[in-house]
Amino acid sequence: MNQSIERYKAALAQSRESRFSGERPAAEPLRCVHSYTKDVDAIIIDVFTTLISPKIGDIPVCLIALGGYGRGELCPYSDIDLLILHDEKSALPGEIAAAIRFFWDIGLTMGCVVRTINECSRILGQDLATDTAFLENRLLAGDGGLYRRLIRDAVEPYFTKKKNRLVGEFRRILHAELYSPETALYRVEPDLKNGICALRDCHRLLWAERLRVGVGNLEELHTKSKFSARETKQFSADYAFYIGLRSMVHRVCGRRIDILESALQPDIARLYGFGDNGAGILMERFFKTVRGIRLFLLSYLEKSPAGTSLWTYFRKRVSAVEAAPGISMCEGIFFSAGKEAFRRRDSVWIMTLFRQALRYQASFSVELRHYIRVIVGTLSVDDFKSQEVGAIFREILSFEGAVGHVFQLMHETETLWRLIPQFEDLTCKVEYDSYHEFTIDQHILQTLVAADDLSGERDRHLRDLYARCPQKMLLRLGLLLHDIGKALPGDHVVNGAIIAETVCERLGLDEDESRRVKTLIYHHLDMSEFSLHREPEKHVLEEFAKLLEDRVNLDMLYLVTVLDIRCVGHSAWTSWKAYQLEQLYTSLGRLLEMPGSVQPAAPAGGGKSAVSYVRDTIPEDQVRHKEWLAALAPGELQIHCDKFHGFERLTVCGWDRMGFLRDSIGCISSEGYNILSAHIFSMPEGKVLDIFYVEPPPYPALSAEKRLSNLNVKWNGIKSGATTADALIAERLRLYPPRRLRPAPHGETEVTIDTVSSTTASIIEIRAADTFGLLHRIVQCFIKNGVNILSGRLSTRVDRANDVFYVTDANNGKIVDSRILENLRTDIIAALQATES
C-alpha cells in the first residue's frame, strides 16, 4: 500500500510540475488546467479500478466529478469534488471509505460524498452551492447506466423545474455585487475566486446561460447567448487570464490559496516574464482584466432574462425619457435610442451626456459606454480644449448633488484621460505599502464618492463643513488631483502641484482658484503628518497657517485630509485619528483668526516680484532656483527641463537686459513649443528667472534633450548677432506652417491698463485668442515702447490667452505717462488683430 501511495504521489507531483512549469500557465492557462484535470482523472480512475472494482463485484457504483472538477478546470491544488454514486438496494463494503482515505494520502484535497440517487434528489434545492456542483457533472468511471439514471431521474427534472428561479437567483447575486456601494473591485490583494468580478461571478453567468439556453462552453456565449464575437473573445481571454493567475498562485505557494497577496506578486510577475520589478505591470494587467469582466457582466444584466436587450424589453412597455439628443433613459440607465445618437461624435456631446447623468443621477448602458470609449479614442486632448467643454466640466465639478459616479463613468470611458491626460498613467496603478488597499486611480475616485457621502455624514462638524464649502469645484478638483503626481518618480506632492498648474489653466480657473487647488495638493499630507506623526511647536503651526492663508483653504484641506485617509483602506480611519485631526484643525483656525497672522513675508529688496515668486513657487523649486541662480556665470543662460505627461516645464535663468524675454520666447516658439503658461520674475542682482509650461510639438519628433540643445544653439546665435528672435520664428513658420491648436477664437482682443493697484508698477492685462507666437508679438510691443517687464503671469485658459504683466519704464520707475500706455495698448491690439485676420 505504501508503495502505491508513493507512486501516485510521484505521478501527481510530476503532473503539476510538467503542466504548470515555466510560463505555461500564463501562455495557455486553460490548456494547462484541462491537461492537469485529465491527469487527475487517470489517477482517480486507476485507484477505482485497482482498489474499488475488485472489492464490489457486481454492485452498481460510479464515480462522478462535480463542480470545478466536473467542469474540467483544476488548478494545481484545487479541491476535488467527487460523488460516489451507488444503488440503494446494495450495501457498499468498507473498502469505499478506505479508497477515500487513499485519495487524501496521495495528496488530493477531496470533497467526497457517497450517495444514492434518492439521496441526491433530496439534497438538490437545499442550497445553491450543491445545485451548482450538480449542474457541472461528469462521469469518471463505473456503471454508466447508474450515472444516466441519476441525470434522467434527478438532475434534469430538478433543473428543468427550477430553471427560471435559479437563473433569477444568479442574476440577483450578480446585480447585488456589481451595484453594491461596498463593492471594491480594485483591492491590491484581490480574491481571485470569490471576489467581485472574479471567477465565481464568471461561473454564475455561465451557470445561468447553461440553464437558459444550454451554453456548454465560453465560445457558445456568442452563438447561443447573443453576445458579439468581440465581447465573447475578450471575456474568454479575461477568464483564461484569471485561471492562469490562480494556477500561478497555487504553484508558488504549494497549496490552495486564492488571495493574490502583495508578497506573492513579485514572484508571480517574474513567472509571467515581467521581470524582477514587474509586480506593478502584473497588477495593472489584472485590474484591466477585472474592468473588462465587469463590463461584460453589466452587459449581461442589461439583457432581459430572455436574452434580449433590456432597452428593447422596456421600450415596448413604457415610454422612456429623452435625456439628450439620441439618448433615452430607462430605469436610471442611459441607452442610445437609435441611429441619431451615433451621428454625434464631438467632445461637447460627450460632456453633455455626463452633465445629464448628473442631473438624472443615472448610469450608462454598457453599449453606450463602449460607444463613448470608441468616440473618445478618435479624439485628441486638443479636441477637449474649448470654452464649452471647460464650462461643462466646471459645472460638473460644482454640482450640488453627488458627482462621484459620473467621474467613475468618465474614467471608465477614458474621457477623464482627455480632460486630464496625466490620469491615464494612474490607471490600475498599484501603490506598494502597508496602507493602500486600492489602486491609485480608484483611491482617487473613491474620495469623490466619499465626499458625496459627507452630505449624510454622522459627524455633524464634517457634514456642516462640507455643506457650507463655498467652492466645491475647487475641493473636488483638489481630490481629483491630490495623487496625480504618483505616476512619476520623486515626491508626488511636488509633481502634483506642478501638474495642477497646467490642469487649472486648461479648465479656465483664475489665478486665485488655481493657487487654492495647488495649496490643497501640495499640503494634502501635512495635516495628517502634523496631527499623527509629529508634535509641532507653535512657530511651526504659525508658519503653516501663513501658507494656508485663510479659513477657506483650511476647511478644504481638512476635508481632503479626512477623505484621503478614509479611502486608503477600511481600517485606516479611526476615532483617534479623527480626534487628532480635529484638534489640529481647531488650533490652525485660531491662528488664522489672529490679526496679521497670514501676511506673507517678502525677501528683502524683492518687492512685488519677490512676493509673487514666494507665493507661486513651491519650496522644493525655490531651493533649486537658488542653486541655479547662484551658479550662473556672467552672461550665461541656463535652461532646465522637467518632463511630464503631455507637457514640459522649461526654467530659464539668465541676466536681465532689454529684449531678454523676447529672445527667450522666440527661441522656445521657434522650436515649435506651444506655450501654455509662464511665470516671469525679476530676481536680485540683475538676474531673471522665467518658468514656461509648454507642449512639445508633434513634428519634428525630437527628444527633450535634443530640443534643449537646439534652444541653447539658437540663444547663442542671437547673442552673437548671427540671428534674431524674429528670424527664428519666421523660419519656423516657413518650415512648419501652423494650424490652429484649438477651435476658432472666441471674443476680441482686450487690453486693460491698471495704474492704481500697484505702487511700483503699472499692470497690463491682455486677453486674446491663443495663437502661435502670441507672446513674442506682445513682448515686441513692450520693447518698441521702451517698457520693461518686472514680472508676469502668462496663462492659456481653455482656448484664450490671459496674460498679466507688471511693467516699469527703462529706469524701473512706474509708468504714469498716459500717452506711453495708450500707445502700448494700440500697438498690442494692432499686432494681435493682424495675426487673427
Keywords:
837 residues, alpha+beta, Beta Polymerase, domain 2, 4 domains, 8-stranded antiparallel β-sheet, 4-stranded mixed β-sheet, 54% helix, 12% strand, elongated
The major beta sheet can be summarized as:
8 strands, antiparallel
Number of domain modules: 4
Q: What value does the average pLDDT take? A: 86
Segments where pLDDT lies below 50 for 5+ residues?
601-606, 741-746
- As an assembly, this protein is single chain
Account of the 3D structure:
Helices cover 54% and strands 12% of the residues. By secondary structure, it is an alpha+beta fold. The strands form three sheets. Strands 9-10-12-11-15-16-14-13 form an eight-stranded antiparallel beta sheet, sandwiched between helices. A hairpin with a 3-residue loop joins strand 11 and strand 12. The longest helix has 35 residues. The relative contact order is 0.05.
Fold topology:
Layout: H1 2-20, H2 24-27, H3 29-56, E1 61-65, H4 67-71, E2 80-86, H5 95-105, E3 110-115, H6 117-123, H7 128-135, E4 138-142, H8 144-178, H9 199-213, H10 220-223, H11 229-253, H12 265-271, H13 279-301, H14 310-315, E5 321-324, E6 327-330, E7 333-336, H15 347-360, E8 363-364, H16 366-378, H17 387-398, H18 404-412, H19 415-419, H20 440-453, H21 460-467, H22 472-481, H23 492-507, H24 511-522, H25 526-532, H26 538-548, H27 551-566, H28 575-593, H29 607-616, H30 619-630, E9 638-644, E10 647-655, H31 660-670, E11 674-683, E12 687-695, H32 704-720, H33 725-735, E13 750-754, E14 762-769, H34 774-784, E15 788-797, E16 800-808, H35 818-836
Parallel strand pairs: 2-3, 7-8
Antiparallel strand pairs: 1-2, 1-4, 5-6, 6-7, 9-10, 10-12, 11-12, 11-15, 13-14, 14-16, 15-16
Helix pairs in contact: 1-3, 3-5, 3-11, 6-8, 8-9, 8-13, 11-13, 12-13, 15-17, 17-22, 18-20, 20-22, 20-27, 22-24, 22-27, 23-24, 25-28, 26-28, 27-28, 31-32, 31-33, 31-34, 34-35
